[in-house]
Amino acid sequence: MLKQLDHKFIMSTYKRYDLLIERGEGCYVFDQSGKKYLDFVGGIATCSVGHGNTFVTEAISAQAGKMISVSNLYYSEPPIRLAAELVRLSGLNKVFFCHSGTEANETAVKVAKKVTGKSEFIAFTQAFHGRTTGSLALTWNERYKTPFAPLTPKVHFARYNEASSIRPLISDKTAAIIVEPIQGEAGIIVPDKGFLKEVRKLCDTYGLCMIVDEVQTGVGRTGRFFAYEHEGVTPDIVTIAKGLANGVPIGACISRHSLDVGEHGSTLGGNSLSAAAALATIDYIERHQLMENAEHTGRYIMEKVRNLSKDSPLIDAVRGKGLMIGIVLKRPLALRISEDCLKMGLLCNAPTADVIRLLPPLIARREEADECMDILSEVLSA
To answer: What's this model's pTM, rounded to 2 decimal places?
Structure first.
């Protein structure tokens, strides 16, 4: 009945798996019949510290009992404290709060335009930065863009992981280069060591803003709070969302620079409730050393996949960092395999036809990793 109502009343912008989830607990979710599923999609990297996390839930509940939103016309403690935390973690100066990654990227575009006085951008092949018209312009896939053309800003696309392809695209109109430290929607593509440093060097040489899109990679998922930390670089602007508040909608643009009164806004951006949830999420991640856990458990899963590939003719490679993992197949069977895993009690997904993506909560340990690999092995062998 609920699925019929969904089809009738909700715009069909998502292809859903045949599963109605009722509740979650830790790394698991449950359907209406009580069947248990190991969740290695994690709300597409939004579930950082597990479903039903008591620490975060209590923070949300306490804040909801006091105030959910007072608007940005007045001061509120949680967003102020959260901004200070994000500045501490990023080494940047100012924060703008919104509701999502695509809005954070829209903000980054405006900041870069204001700072440089220029209007064009460089992004990369296979990039995904969102679906609003500005962030969509920065996104590579023409299938997403063509129905909504023309788009702004004007964007030139360099080849991802090839720094030499960037220089010919830089002009006196270029405001910024925007880059994902790992391309998530493209199938977990990890660039070579040194690529981000080359991007940083080009930005410094030509006076461009370096924007790093950490919407999927951020909040400890790769073993560092921001994935760019692995390269020892600091961007001018970083965008973050997804896992920041353990599933409560929030986005943030963190920058060396600032926008002024009237230049941008968001009525509910950084409201007291979402900020309280984000503060609790960051606290829990640091207190329980979940970044270290992501690094160790992720390495363990990738080694298990490599061992499995010796017996499976379907697995071509595994790539990723921390708990952001892509299993590359030799044939375009990722969707079918993810559907078969669902029937066996494992949630994973297929960002591309030949890649199975794993984005479990950062609390996932070896026990859950073994359970995931047992199901995946059985599905592949079948």
So the answer is: 0.96
